[in-house]
Amino acid sequence: MFSKSASKSPAPRPETAETLVRKPIACSLIAENVTLRGDVATDGDVHLDGALKGDLRVRELTIGEGGAVEGAIEAESVEIRGKVVGTVTAKSVRLFSTARVEGDITHAQLAIEPGAHFAGRSLKFETPATAEPLAISAAE
To answer: In the chain, what are the domain boundaries?
Structure first.
């Protein structure tokens, strides 16, 4: 009853394009007692409680209440609870009530909670104009 039976090992699953495209990447934490000078780039997510003087290019960025960035930010989504001096470019940007942003924000979606400080311009992503097909008239 409890003996092992001769069984076939499971067939390996074929790898799809989704599994090959992106491997899970752990979120990077820049702690509150850390100050970085220079540019930071990653395909992963970053949670910033420290300070960065330089440009930041990440997938998703969360800036904690004690976090500060002095430079340009590019990401898919950005949540700001701390301070940013520089431009922010992201599909989705959310400024929490403790946020202080001095610079332009280019976005598809922007949410600003009451109490947030924002000094700059809000610029909507421009969607590229699609070319309309030319109407072909039949010659008579």
So the answer is: 20-124
